[in-house]
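Predict structure. Chain length: 129.
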Amino acid sequence: MNIPDGVELIKGEIADYWLDTDGILYSFSKNPTRTVKNISENIALVKRITGNKKVPLLIYLSNSPVPDRETRKFSTEQLPNVYSAMAMVSKPGLAKFIMNLLFKFKTPPIPMKSFTDDVQAREWLRQYL
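Prediction complete.
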C-alpha cells in the first residue's frame, strides 16, 4: 500500500493509522504483545481519529505474539464498538490463523474477511461505508 502524498500517519503503540476521505480507516499493525491496557488505549486513539464513529477498517497485519485469553476476549468484545467491518491484509495464512485464534467457536461480531491484496480489501469494505 502506498500512502498518498501529504498523509501523515497517526502513531499508536500497536498500530499506525490514517483515515481516507471515503471514511475507511487504514491500520499498519505493529508487533508488541497485545494487552487489555494497550488495546484500550488503541481504541481511544481510533475513536479520536474517527470522531467516535464506527468505520470500516483495512488492517495490514504483522506477526505479533499471541495475546492472553483475557486480551483476546476484550478485543473481540470491543470490535463492534469501533468498526463496522474489518478487512485483513497479510501474507497467505496469517489472517486465517488470527481468525481461528479469535473466533474458533463463534461468529465474528462484525463482518471480517482476509485478503492478500489491498485493492480487493478496499473494494469489499466500500459496502460498509
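Summary: Residues 27 and 59 are 5 Å apart (CA to CA).
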